[in-house]
Amino acid sequence: MIIYFQKAVRDLRANLFLNTVTVITIALSVLIFSAFMLFFVNADGFLRHWIADMRIMVYLKPGVQPETVDRMKSRIENLPGVRKAEFISKSRAMDRFRDQLKRQSSLLDGLRENPLPESFEVRMDITARGWRNIEPVAREIESLNGVEEVEYGQQWVGRFIHVLNLIRVAGYALGGMFFGAAVFFVANTVRLVLYSRRDEVEIMRLVGASEGFVKDPFYIQNLIMGTLGGLLGITILYFGYRFIAANVAAELSTVSFQLIFLPFRISLGILLGSMFVGWLGCFISLRQFLKT
Amino acid sequence: MEVFEKPSAIIQMFHVSKRYSAKAALVDISLEVADNEFVFVSGPSGAGKTTLLRLLYMGETATTGQIVVDGLNLSRIARRRVPFLRRKFGIIFQDYRLIPSRSVFDNIALVVEAVGTKRQLIRKTVMSLLRTVGMEERWRALPLSLSGGEQQRVAVARAIAGDPKIIVADEPTSSLDHDSAEIILNLLKQYHQRGATVMIATHDTELIRSTGGRVILLKEGRVDAAAHLPAGTS
Ligand SMILES: Nc1ncnc2c1ncn2[C@@H]1O[C@H](COP(=O)(O)OP(=O)(O)O)[C@@H](O)[C@H]1O
Ligand SMILES: [Mg+2]
Description:
The complex is a heterodimer of chains A (about 290) and B (about 230). Chain A has ten helices and four strands. Chain A has about 290 residues and is an alpha+beta fold. Chain A folds into two domains: about 1-50 and about 160-285, no CATH class; about 55-150, Alpha-Beta Plaits, CATH 3.30.70.3040. In chain A, strands 2-3-1-4 form a four-stranded antiparallel sheet. Chain A is elongated. With about 230 residues, chain B is an alpha/beta fold. Chain B has a domain at about 35-60 and about 85-225: Rossmann fold (3-Layer(aba) Sandwich). Helix content of chain B is about 30%, strand content about 25%. In chain B, strands 6-7-8-3-9-10 form a six-stranded mixed sheet, with helices on both faces. Chain B starts with 8 loop residues before the first strand and ends in an 11-residue tail after the last strand. At the A-B interface, helix 8 of A face helix 2 and helix 3 of B. Bound molecules: adenosine-5'-diphosphate and magnesium ion. Magnesium ion (MG) binds next to helix 1 of chain B.
């Protein structure tokens, strides 16, 4: 095994230029693919952050009975995508209002009667699905007895999710294309190397070298190149991420939202994918070349 | 009464034909080669000598007929068992076919390794093979810096590296001067004396006459029956 590895490294050096170009090609593919992944990871995070903050305000007609309130609460909470419905009494509403007004809250002292309505604060599941339900849920609630008005904002979130899904599809398509291109490139490199060493390969086969003896060095070389390409791509992405996080994101993140890098699991998956690219390209070429 | 023990055949061909798309290279060949025999395959250029040798180690497959090598029926052999068949052979070519980018040592080490020699023994084995053919001093050299005769000696060392039962040599001396040719032939004879079967394809009747041994004469892809007599007795 170690001797195979040494030989593979020697052979990699022997075709340094070609192999460098191959590694760079793999790295570029990995970079583009993982940039998409990074975008999605953060877009998802951003979305969750927003959705966690989203709520439907349900204002009740004056004089609704406490039993009715309880019934409404359980009906609302049983609607799809609803996480929680919290009843807010007139006095709690006033307290909150005071909090919001802070210093000017003394203005409220002159009120003889609390003018704020009772309400429910409805929170949705922290998933995209939860968010997609918000409109039907709001309409459902509106039709309940005793509801005066329903308020929910940020309709754009729905559109945002939609656009995100489009980009996701495009990302998969592009990722697939680059994957194919990388495999094609690796296969061609292997073919070139095989061609330049066809005498050697031919001799090895004539003297009865096993298939593995002939092929394994190629597989090992390409797994090494796949690994290097993957590491290089992810490393470049990391520095790109650091740059963006330091400069651009600082201005964007007025909310308490933090950009994150690809989680370890995804990075590892991408690395394995790029090793697979090396393996597959090699497999395709060897199968064609060593058919006879 | 004389007890005649027929030596067992290591190679048998039964009605073997080989067609290339346009023409027949071999037609209905049936022959046997005994274990530890020294045989020439002779005939004019284009007679089918190369094709016949290539069929034996599955460098080609026969169009029809059966070939049995050391008990293996080549028409039934599984693809992954082909390396196993090939290890029975040491193959020598007219144009040596050394890998030009590798040193003499590496050219042989490749084979020594391929046949599964333990790593610690590779160096010793290669050097002892080179000693056998008198090339141990040149182990570092690149093939193209050697003379034709020297390259062929290295090729012989490579051919015997896996300790094969059968040597097939296709015009091994045709590119060599007389002295070099003799060295090569002597090496092959030596290896024959160690118990191997040797088959040499050549159109050089002088070489056959001076060496002795059975001759299989091919003519336009057929075995010429007249040639089954021993050619030359010297
Ligand atoms: N790969 C091939 N494709 C087509 N024809 C071939 C091929 N190899 C050999 N032949 C033909 O088969 C015949 C026998 O060739 P060969 O075995 O090389 O003869 P020899 O070695 O006796 O000179 C020749 O007519 C040759 O042209
Ligand atoms: Mg020939």
